[in-house]
Design a protein that fits this description.
The chain is α/β, with parallel strands linked by helices. The protein is 38% helix and 25% strand. The structure holds nicotinamide-adenine-dinucleotide. Nicotinamide-adenine-dinucleotide binds next to helix 1.
Length: 368
C-alpha cells in the first residue's frame, strides 16, 4: 500500500546495472529500510523488459523512456542505459521536474557532464550518481581511521584496478567496445570510480600525466596509467587494465602517509583493510568491523535494524548499490542534497578528460 512516504521510482535500462538497482530496491522494501514502489521500467529490448517486469512484479512497462518520465506516478528516475544516452534522459527528467539518479560515467566527456550538472542545479532537481565506492564499508572505515588517528601528511596513493574486458564475461556488453557510445575504455568506464576515490581521499588534483594503450586493437583503451599531483603535495598513481584472463575483478588501494599506511583489498572473495601507524603493530580489519562505518555513514544503528537489513546493506553482491540507493533515496525523501552528486562526477570527469589529453599530447596537463 502506498502512502505519503512511498518513493515512486521509474527505471530506464533493465540490463546489468539496472537489474542490480531493482534487486536493491526490493531489498530496501523487504527489509523495511525504505518504502519503495517500482512504478515503471523501460527498455528498448522487449525480452529484457519483460524479464525485469516479471521478476520484480512491475505492472507498467515502456519501450519509450519519455513516456516513463512523463508518467505522473513516477517521481524519481533511474538512468541505467549505455553512457551516450544518459544526457538526453537526464534532460527529460529535469524538464519534468523529477529527481534523477544517473549511472556513471555521466557522459562521454566532461563538457557534456558539466551541461548535465548545470541543468539539474538550475532546475533545483536532486541528482545522484552511481559512484558506488563512496558506500564501500572499507573505504568508509579508512576515512574514519584518518579522522580518528594522526597518520601525518599524505604522501602517495596507488590504485591497481583490473577487470576482464567487459565485452564478454562479467558485464557482457557490445557497447563497451565502442568509443562513440562509451566515451573510452578502462579509464572512463571503470576507473572513473578510482579517480573519484583518489580525489575524495587526497583532495583536488592540479595536474595529470597519463599513458593509455590499445593492446586489443579496439578504439577503446584497455590500459591506462595515470600520475596525478594533488594541491596538498601528495601524488596519486592509478594503473587500470582490461585483460582477457578469467578471474574476479580486483582493486587494490594503498595510501602512504608520513606516519602511517592503509592498504585495502576489494577483491570479491578477499576483502580486507590493513593499517599500520608508526610505533603501533599492524592491524587487519574484516567486514564485520568495517560494516559499522557504513551503518554509521547511513545514520543507522545495528541494534535498531534487523539482521536482514544489515545483510542487505553490507554483504557482497548488490550491497554497495543498496547502500548507495538508501542514501540517495533517503536524501530525496528528506529534501537534502544527495552525495555523491553530479558535481562529484564532473570533478572526476575533468581528470579523466585531462588524462586522455595528456596521452594525446604526450605531456602533463594542468587543471587548476
Ligand atoms: N556504478 C557502477 O558500478 C556500474 C556498474 C555497471 C555499469 N554501470 C553503468 O551503467 C550503465 C549501463 O551499464 P550496463 O552494464 O547495465 O549495460 P547493459 O548493456 O547491461 O544494459 C543497458 C540496458 O539499456 C537498454 N537500452 C539501450 N538503449 C535504450 C533506450 N533508448 N531506452 C531504454 N533502454 C535502453 C539496453 O537494452 C540494456 O538492457 C553504463 O553507463 C555503465 O557504465 C555502472
Amino acid at each position: 500500500m502506498s502512502n505519503k512516504n512511498t518513493l515512486h521510482v521509474g527505471l530506464i535500462g533493465t540490463g546489468n546495472i539496472g537489474k542490480t538497482h531493482l534487486i536493491s530496491f526490493s531489498s530496501l522494501q523487504e527489509t523495511g529500510l525504505l518504502d519503495i514502489d517500482i512504478a515503471a521500467v523501460c527498455d528498448t529490448d522487449q525480452d529484457s523488459l519483460a524479464r525485469a517486469a516479471d521478476l520484480f512484479d512491475i505492472k507498467t512497462t515502456y519501450l519509450d523512456y519519455n513516456k516513463l518520465v512523463e508518467n505522473p506516478d513516477v517521481d524519481i528516475i533511474y538512468v541505467c542505459t549505455p553512457t551516450n544516452l544518459h544526457s538526453d534522459m537526464v534532460k527529460v527528467a529535469v524538464k519534468n521536474h523529477k529527481a534523477v539518479f544517473c549511472e556513471k560515467p555521466l557522459a562521454r566527456s566532461s563538457p557534456q557532464a558539466q551541461v548535465m550538472m548545470a541543468m539539474t542545479r538550475d532546475a533545483g532537481v536532486p541528482a545522484g550518481v552511481g559512484l558506488v565506492l563512496r558506500y564501500d564499508q572499507f573505504l568508509l572505515f579508512a576515512k574514519r581511521l584518518l579522522d580518528e588517528h594522526d597518520f601525518g601528511t599524505p604522501m602517495l596513493a596507488h590504485i591497481r584496478d583490473d577487470q576482464r574486458f567487459p565485452v564478454d564475461y562479467i558485464y557482457y556488453s557490445h557497447w563497451r567496445g565502442n568509443k562513440t557510445i562509451a566515451g573510452g575504455g578502462t579509464l572512463i568506464e571503470h576507473s572513473i570510480h578510482d579517480i573519484d576515490i583518489l580525489r575524495w581521499f587526497l583532495g583536488d588534483i592540479e595536474s595529470v600525466y597519463a599513458r593509455t594503450s590499445h593492446f586489443a586493437g579496439r578504439d577503446v583503451e584497455d590500459h591506462a596509467s595515470v600520475i596525478m599531483n594533488h594541491t596538498s603535495g601528495a601524488t596519486s598513481t592509478l594503473d587500470s587494465v582490461w585483460h582477457w584472463v578469467e578471474r574476479p575483478n580486483e582493486r587494490y588501494l594503498e595510501f602512504f602517509f608520513e606516519k602511517g599506511y592503509i592498504g585495502i583489498s576489494l577483491e570479491s572473495d578477499k576483502r580486507y583493510l590493513e593499517y599500520h601507524l608508526q610505533g603501533d603493530a599492524p592491524v587487519k580489519v574484516w567486514d564485520e568491523t568495517a560494516n559499522a562505518a557504513l551503518l554509521d555513514e547511513l545514520g543507522l544503528e545495528s541494534k535498531s535494524i534487523s539482521p536482514a537489513a544489515i545483510e542487505a546493506l553490507t554483504c557482497v553482491g548488490a550491497e554497495r548499490y543498496t547502500a548507495l540507493n538508501y542514501a540517495f533515496l533517503k536524501a530525496v525523501k528528506e529534501k537534502i542534497s544527495p552525495r555523491p552528486d553530479f558535481g562529484d562526477a564532473v570533478a572526476a570527469h575533468n581528470i579523466v578528460d585531462a588524462a586522455y589529453e595528456s596521452t594525446d599530447k604526450g605531456r602533463c596537463i594542468a587543471l587548476l
